[in-house]
Design brief:
mainly alpha, Serine Threonine Protein Phosphatase 5, Tetratricopeptide repeat
Length: 226
């Protein structure tokens, strides 16, 4: 009986101690939970402070609004200088040449005459003929016909030259080119070997235009034909 009572007493003491230990463990667990909660708050507080201190991010521009706000110029910026305008001097126009101041018919005549002087009788003849075709009322038509005869003469087409000289004599009998045309015509007859026709032309020249340079030249030629 005493042994049984002793075991019961010891079991009760052990049970009491066990309950006491459980209470202490519970209190320790509560303290541990409080500590963990405080540690968690301490860990979170720096992040919250950093987030609060950071400036808010600008919202990204929408796809439909890409226009940027104009940048206001600084009040200390130097004023914009006006553009420097350099005046372009007027282009000097070359003075008009004598040919550009001439009438078209006279310019064409001078062109043909230049070709003849440069030893191009065929090209010159075509230009003289073009003058007569384009300007039938040209006041120097007798000169043109005479020069056509000169071109034929230079080309050694003496018969064509004789006919051109005759046109000067027939169309412009009172013109100043008749003595020259007669002298040239007589020379062309000499070139083809017709001395008789040449003598008749020279005598006619001396008779109708005495005292002229062409008449004096014809007299010399008549002496050579004797």
């Amino acid at each position: 009986m005493e042994g049984t009572e002793g075991l019961s007493r010891k079991s009760g003491e052990l049970y009491s101690r066990l309950e006491e230990l459980q209470m202490r463990v519970g209190k320790l667990n509560g303290k541990i939970e409080d500590l963990e909660h405080k540690i968690d708050q301490l860990q979170r507080s720096p992040q919250s402070a950093a987030v609060a201190a950071a400036p808010p991010e600008a919202p990204p521009p929408s796809a439909g609004n890409t226009q940027q706000e104009p940048v206001q110029p600084s009040s200390q910026a130097s004023p914009q200088q006006p553009p420097v305008v350099t005046s372009v001097p007027p282009r000097n126009t070359p003075p008009q040449t004598e040919a550009s101041q001439m009438p078209q018919d006279q310019a064409a005549f001078e062109k043909a005459s230049q070709l003849l002087q440069n030893g191009k009788p065929e090209a010159a003849r075509k230009e003289f003929q073009a003058v007569l075709s384009r300007y039938p009322k040209y006041d120097r038509a007798d000169d043109v016909l005479l020069n056509i005869g000169e071109c034929y003469f230079a080309e050694k087409r003496y018969q064509d030259a004789i006919e051109s000289y005759q046109q000067v004599i027939d169309k412009y009998p009172r013109g100043g080119k008749v003595p020259v045309a007669l002298l040239k015509q007589g020379t062309a007859f000499q070139q083809i070997g017709d001395s008789t026709a040449a003598r008749i032309i020279y005598e006619r020249l001396v008779e109708k235009f005495p005292g002229t340079a062409q008449a004096q030249a014809a007299e010399k030629k008549l002496k050579q034909l004797q």
